[in-house]
Please model this.
Amino acid sequence: MEENVEDQRLPHKGNAPEYVSMDKLADLGVLYWKLNPNNYENDEELNKIRESRGYSYMDLLDLCPEKVDDYEAKLKNFFTEHIHADEEIRYCLEGSGYFDVRDKDDRWVRIWMKPGDMIILPPGIYHRFTLDTNNYIKLMRLFIGEPVWTAYNRPQEEHPARKEYLKSLKEINERAVEAH
Model:
């Protein structure tokens, strides 16, 4: 996405948008599933993902001006570039919004989340979140064990999760070179 200080809720595609494949997201450690948001309470695929990855905690979050106190400040906070020591798992049930992640060249990649999209961001990846111009999203948040909400704002190059993430990117790169 283009670097732009305009309204963060706009797509920011630029004049010559570059679309990113699912493979490129996977190379960054971002995992993606398309699920049925109308059946999330009884979705066997979601249950298999939760069981295989150990996600024992789940809650739902409605983000919109009518349901969040100090909405603009919270949205600004979510849009501050940061990392987490754990995975960030989000499943869009209603509405839409953007997760931005940094690629290997430190450029932003914008992921537009719509109903049914589920992503997992690896620990240590720089990212941020914002709603789009619809100003509404309902997300399922999943965690292993008790939820941890701690965000570490950039720069965090010495954080153990960041170091491990960079190491994993290097290993992915080395395997790709060996495959050629």
Q: What stands out?
A: The chain has four helices and ten strands. The CA atoms of residues 169 and 175 lie 10 Å apart. The chain has one domain: 22-179. The mean pLDDT is 92.
